[in-house]
Amino acid sequence: MRIGFIKMHGLGNDFVVLDGRDQALPPLTPGFASAVADRHTGIGCDQMVVLEPSHQADIRARFFNHDGSEVQSCGNASRAIGLLLGKAAMIETLGGVIAVSPDSAGIAVDMGKPRFEWNEIPLAYAMDSYAMPVAWENLDSPTAVNVGNPHVIFFVPDCAAVDLHRLGPEIENDPLFPERINVNVAQPVSREHIRLRVWERGAGETRACGTGACATAIGAMRRGLAERKVRVSLPGGDLMIEWTQEDRILMTGPATQSFRGSFDPVAIGAA
């Protein structure tokens, strides 16, 4: 059995998309997802995305990180799905139903409402998520927000100077975060511009992270560091993030289809 796939990326954050609406797929185990994502013996990607029929939206999307773990949402992959659909649509995810639509700047995604309560992020125990009284070396007093998946954001003078490959996994797996955490180091350039690096749980540092850009923008806005609409620059490129008066997060940016192909699960150790 061969399985068709679509290779896509959003600002270099890359995905293997499997459409389960028109083909049979093997059980979606962590081992299968990590085998597909392996860049040496599989197809290679940051996340595997599976499309399925939905009873409450136009389509259902499931997101699996490079290590095979399933996560609630993925902003860049949601834009990629919007590109595939080619029209305004509702997408069911584990993080909730989101809306996508074509935009002059690419694909716009309504990511829903941010969540700030400690048990919504979640944290292991109660604390104020606005300025958390915790630190990892020189990274301290972060803010936390759930935008479909959990993020912690550190505002720093120079995000390029942070040893994210060492501190990222330590923070990601800290017992404070029972579901692990996505780690953002953000450098406010002005009230309209933020530079950002993201360590994604289960994937490591990626060239772009849509939910990370959303979470960081919201965190900066809460602290008075940014306007309600801000440009977030990641290593792979820029996203525009807006926090509307209706308490919705709008993310706009590009998505690209790289190529299509098929693979034998047995050949890559996924069966």
Main traits of this protein?
271 residues, alpha+beta, Diaminopimelate Epimerase, Chain A, domain 1, 2 domains, two-stranded antiparallel ribbon, 4 helices, 15% helix, globular
Description:
With 271 residues, the chain is an alpha+beta fold. It has 4 helices and 19 strands. It has helices at residues 30-37, 75-85, 164-172, 210-222, and strands at 3-10, 13-19, 47-52, 59-65, 70-71, 89-93, 96-103, 106-110, 135-136, 139-140, 143-146, 150-155, 182-190, 193-200, 204-206, 229-234, 237-243, 249-253, 256-263. The strands form 2 sheets. It has a 17-stranded mixed β-sheet that branches. Helices cover 15% and strands 40% of the residues. It has 2 domains: 3-102 and 255-263, Diaminopimelate Epimerase, Chain A, domain 1 (Roll), CATH 3.10.310.10; 135-247, Diaminopimelate Epimerase, Chain A, domain 1 (Roll).
Write the topology of this structure.
Blueprint: E1 3-10, E2 13-19, H1 30-37, E3 47-52, E4 59-65, E5 70-71, H2 75-85, E6 89-93, E7 96-103, E8 106-110, E9 135-136, E10 139-140, E11 143-146, E12 150-155, H3 164-172, E13 182-190, E14 193-200, E15 204-206, H4 210-222, E16 229-234, E17 237-243, E18 249-253, E19 256-263
Q: What is the terminal separation in angstroms? A: 10 Å
The second-level CATH architecture of the largest domain is Roll
- 3D shape: globular
Radius of gyration: 18 Å
- The unreliable regions are none
Proportion in helices: 10-25%
Strands, total number: 19
Identify the quaternary structure here: single chain
CATH class assignment of the largest domain? Alpha Beta
Tell me the β content. 35-45%
What series of H and E elements makes up the topology? EEHEEEHEEEEEEEHEEEHEEEE
CATH homologous superfamily caption of the largest domain: Diaminopimelate Epimerase, Chain A, domain 1
Question: Treating each run of at least 4 consecutive H or I residues as one helix, how many helices?
Answer: 4
Major β-sheet profile: 17 strands, mixed
Number of domains: 2
**SSE class:** alpha+beta
